[in-house]
Each structure stands twice: as C-alpha cells, then as structure tokens.
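Researcher: Here's a chain I'd like modeled. Treat it as a single chain, no partners, no ligands.
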Amino acid sequence: MNNFVFQNPTKLIFGRGEIAKLSQELPKDKKIMVTFGGGSVKRNGVYDQVVAALEGFDFVEFWGIEPNPKVETLRKAVEQCKREGVEFLLAVGGGSTLDGTKLIAAAAVVDCDAWELVRNPKLYAGTLPFASVMTLPATGSEMNRGAVISNLSTGEKYSFYNTFPLFSILDPEATFTLPPFQVACGLADTFVHIMEQYLTVTECSPLIDRWAEGVVQTVVEVAPKVRANQHDYDAMATYMLSATMGLNGFVAMGVPQDWATHMIGHEITALTGTTHGQTLVIVLPGVMNVMREQKGDKIVQFGERVWGVREGSKDERIDRTIEATEQFFRSLGLATRLSELSIGEDVVTEIVRRFRERGTLLGENKNIDYRLVETILRQRM
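Model: Modeled as a single isolated chain. Structure tokens:
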C-alpha cells in the first residue's frame, strides 16, 4: 500500500426532506449566492424547498450554469459576486452546477481571469465558502474538491481543484424526475470513477480493492431497479450514495490511479458536446483492451469478483471481462462506439493532435502517449 494522507471535511446530510436543514447549516450573517442550472429544480420542487429554507436570509440567485460548465458563463457569476459582495455560495443542481460554483468561489477572491485560474493552479488564493444541494448523482463533486471546466471559445476542457464543500444535502426524491438518459450517464460515470481508481495493479491494498468492488457491484445490482422505476426511493438512494462514495477519496486511499479514460473522454466532450458519462463508456473498454498486458492481472480479478468470470485462459478471461463491461453499459441504453454517435475520423485526429502537441502522458504509469490514445480511439470506432 502506498503512503497517503486522507481528509474529507464535507458534512453529508442525506435523506428525504433534508433540504429543509439548509436553514440550520447556512450562515445567517453572510450574503449568499445560490447557483442553478437550467431550471429543472423548479420542475421537481427543489427550488421551492430551497427558497422556503432561505426565508430570512440575504441571498441572490444566479441561473444558467450548463452541463460541462463554461467559463464564459462562470465569469458572469464571478462578476456578480464581486459587485454584490457575496460571501457564501450554495450550488443547487447536478455536478456541473457544483463544479462551476467551485470555480466561481475561487475566482471571486482573485484579480485574474477565471480561465487563468483553471490553467495555472499557482494563482489559486483561497475561496469563498460554499455548499451544495445535489439533484443528479454522478460526479461525486458533492464530497470532493475537484471540478471540470470547459472553454467554449477554445474547445478545451480541464480539471480544476478547489476545496471541499462545507456540507452537501442529498435527497433521493430530487432524482425521481431526472431524464432517463441522465440517470444512465450518472450510473456509468459512477462505475467508471471507481474503475479509474481500481483498475491498475493487484495486491496493493486488498481492503480498498474490496471496497471498490463492493461499490461497483452495488451500481451493477441497482442499475436495473433504477432503470425500471425512478420513484423507487431505496434504489435511488443507493444509486445516489454510490455516486458519492465512488469519488470522495475512500477508494483512492493508498492505491495508484489511472484516469486515462476520463482525460480522453473530456476531449470528446469538448469537441462534440457529448455527455460526459456517455464518452466514458465508449473509451473504457478500449483502455482495458489496449492496456491488457499492463492491467491484465487486475482485469482478471475484476472479472472474477464482479462478473463471475472464472474459466478459460488469461486472455480469454480478459476478453470476457471487457465484453461483460461493455454489455453492462449497453444495458443502460448507452452507445459504446463512436460511430453510433456519428463521431468520425476528424474528431479522433484532433484529439490525437492535442495530446501530441501537449506531450500528455496518461495512466497510472504515465505510458499512454498520443499513439496509444489513437489506438484506443480507433478500436472504439
């Protein structure tokens, strides 16, 4: 097991009706900006619950943080924060709303442009305090310090790291009316988050391996229930908590991590606008296959413990494990090939060009270069 330091200060408030606790958790002596996405929180009743809980508070609203939050939009929120003296931020919505809010919170206390802050972590100078009410399980942003920010003008998408939310409220009932496609992508995103932290080497941390396998098995088991009935409170609660546990640092303790699938997927999203979770299910089987020699022992372990693949040669077991993984993604109703989304050679060529020019090296061993990225993508055509 590798050396590590683990700290997760976010207070998780989970369950039916817990949005009302905002009135107890928010500072009554600070001006608050509440950030929102495109309006789904008004349709599912979350907005009314938030406003009721904020009675007597001094707050303003900012609307329009889009999926794959754009820095162009976030700049407007930063300017409003500075102009109106905002002292605390509350994100209400999905992971993109919270991701965008993390950048707003950091950019509001510096003089540089928000995109400069994304591209140069040395400019980071602290943050306004922030919290969240989450309505879309997927990113785990409610209990981690990461965010992913897009730049519409340059067609780029990069990770950004701020600090942890002070608290996050998760009410599974807020997920009942989510579009089924978004639920499918959220399940896929959760699955791949775990795989990025798990699918590296064996015998590094048996405890964390079992923990990761337990979360991913839970996602696999609950997915059909969620797909069949989004008003099944217990199923949606299990899905929601799995998404949080998949990326709050627990399954990353003391183990190497990959993240190649996410980095390649981000480029597909930046160039085509494809939903993040959808890109991941296309890329992951390619990473597993192209890196099968390096990851083979862990793929075999994963296949045995999660998919029940126990017979055949090592190569046969790897093939069957990759196939089982792809079939799970298909069971969610998601495409697993670029061609199914009409993504062609031009996108592959541009992604390869970007990785080549940046000199990017991906994976737990930093040995996935632009040539291997091209091989991975061409296998997924």
